[in-house]
Design goal:
Blueprint lengths: L1 E3 L15 H21 L5 H17 L5 H35 L1 H12 L2 H19 L2 H18 L4 H18 L4 H9 L4 H30 L7 H12 L8 H11 L4 H18 L5 H10 L8 H6 L4 H4 L1 H19 L2 H10 L5 H19 L2 H11 L1 H6 L4 H13 L9 H10 L3 H4 L4 H16 L8 H11 L5 E3 L3
Antiparallel strand pairs: 1-2
Length: 491
């Protein structure tokens, strides 16, 4: 387990603490660099982020007085925290390629085209993703396995890929939030000193409302997007798959192995790694692929020639090495986030946001803004949970609120919005795994918007807000004033 202990406002010596104006300087620089690089010159995000790293490092060194060693340590701590994310990214890309070579994903597409209809596909995809994510406790595992197959099925049915990706993410994050196996769910409970099941129960009503609205929107979207499929389209896709792969129940062995391990509570990284071995073995013994060719596909990706361009495109993958482009963005974003954290920028911003809280409604809103801001600035959903969770705890106690109000708020606004930020680990992973750019699926990722909106509705109306009695509130205030290291795992 990787320990992450953020620098909080009161932990920083006043002589070393940046003012609000100084804290905003690297933020403004990052916005300018990303805008100029991505919009004006149409660059990839790596070098605009690199400019931000250089600017933030120089500003922290020569204006804030941090040593080079402190800055290196900040980068190293952030990269260490994100190392599991990076390893999972590489593993999932290898898994997808090995499952395609094994015929697993092609066969899921083959049978899925027989079971689904265009009209009901989007809401059913969201519900299936929610069920699987709840069972395995991981939105990332769900997207990297079932999600990839659903993208292919949706394309075969004529559903635009961004819509399918949005439905998958809505379901995946819904199930993840409610699962006691989820790392982010456990982390939100731990960092706010909340009982795990009290935290889950506190999220249930809001999650159900947001997801129900999302499913209804997908149902309406399905009616508009379905259109008329040519009579021979599904048959042509299935024929192209059969001409290239052995379609047999045996090819689902990697699915059984991977989800079986996940259901037994095995962490995501060893589970997905075992899935790669299962995929390679299935490719060898069912598809007849040679040992070297099977591992080469997992490493370098797949480019099948099925005789149908649509199927070729759906089953093309980059493998482990193909994930390097996205991983370099993740590394740059994590490095920048580490500099901002070590320089005290994140602590100062959270502190000043907290000063805006004068009611339950404003406290809920500030928590949501703080969590989303951490996703944008630190590019890591764990930071969006840990920093607000440890910074704002006292404010909830002062207003006589139980800790599950805070734990619910940071998950409803932090975990769910990570996939909406193109350079955040969540956005990078989902875009790379599903093959749909973040800004293209974002308008259809309804749950990502609805979850924080329902949270704000709770704060304004008082619905589902839980108060403590005076004794509990005082005790909670004393407890929440303490800080400590928090173990962060993978989602």
């Amino acid at each position: 387990m990787v320990e992450f202990e953020p620098r909080l406002f009161d932990d920083i010596d006043p002589s070393e603490r940046p003012s609000l104006g100084a804290a905003l300087v690297p933020i403004a620089g990052m916005i300018v660099f990303l805008s100029v690089g991505l919009i004006a010159f149409d660059l990839d995000p790596q070098f605009p982020l690199f400019w931000g790293i250089a600017f933030t490092g120089l500003f922290a060194r020569y204006h804030l007085g941090l040593s080079w060693t402190e800055l290196y340590d900040g980068i190293a701590s952030s990269l260490l925290m994100g190392m599991r994310v990076i390893l999972i990214m590489f593993t999932v890309y290898a898994l997808i390629a090995s499952w395609i070579q094994a015929g697993t994903i092609p066969s899921l597409m083959y049978f899925g085209l027989e079971l689904f209809t265009p009209t009901v596909f989007l809401p059913v995809a969201a519900i299936l993703s929610a069920i699987i994510s709840f069972a395995v406790g991981s939105s990332w595992t769900t997207a990297g396995t079932l999600g990839v197959a659903l993208i292919g099925i949706g394309s075969g049915l004529g559903i635009p890929e961004p819509m399918t990706a949005g439905a998958i993410l809505s379901g995946a994050y819904t199930g993840d939030k409610q699962s006691p196996l989820s790392d982010t769910t456990n982390l939100a409970a731990a960092v706010t000193d909340t009982d795990l099941y009290e935290h889950i129960n506190a999220m249930r009503a809001g999650t159900l409302v947001a997801f129900t609205i999302a499913v209804l929107l997908y149902a309406g979207l399905g009616l508009r997007a379905a259109g008329t499929i040519p009579a021979d389209r599904v048959a042509s896709i299935q024929a192209a798959i059969e001409s290239t792969y052995v379609v047999s129940p045996l090819v689902f062995l990697p699915v059984v192995v991977t989800f079986g391990l996940a259901l037994r509570g095995v962490p995501a990284l060893p589970t997905l790694g075992t899935g790669v071995f299962a995929g390679v073995g299935t490719a060898m013994f069912v598809q007849g692929t040679g040992f070297g060719a099977a591992w080469s596909a997992a490493q370098s990706g797949t480019a099948p020639e099925t005789g149908m361009e649509l199927v070729n495109g759906l089953l093309e993958s980059g493998g482990l090495t193909g994930g390097a482009w996205i991983v370099t963005i993740a590394i740059a974003a994590l490095a920048l986030g580490g500099l901002l954290e070590r320089a005290g920028v994140l602590a100062v911003l959270s502190h000043h946001l907290g000063r805006l809280c004068h009611s339950v409604a404003s406290l809920t809103g500030v928590t949501a803004v703080s969590a989303v801001s951490m996703n944008i600035l630190a590019a890591e959903q764990y930071v969006s949970i840990v920093v607000p969770g440890m910074t704002l705890g006292n404010l909830y106690s002062e207003q006589g609120l139980k800790s599950q109000n805070l734990s619910r708020a940071i998950e409803a606004s932090g975990t769910t919005t990570s996939a909406l930020i193109p350079w955040s680990s969540g956005g990078l992973f989902m875009a790379g795994t599903l093959g749909v750019p973040t800004l293209e699926y974002a308008p259809y990722y309804f749950f990502g918007f609805l979850s924080p909106l329902v949270l704000l509705f709770m704060g304004v109306t008082g619905w589902q807000i839980v108060y403590a009695d005076r004794t509990d509130a005082g005790g909670r205030a004393a407890e929440s004033g303490s800080t400590g290291s928090v173990a962060a795992g993978e989602d």
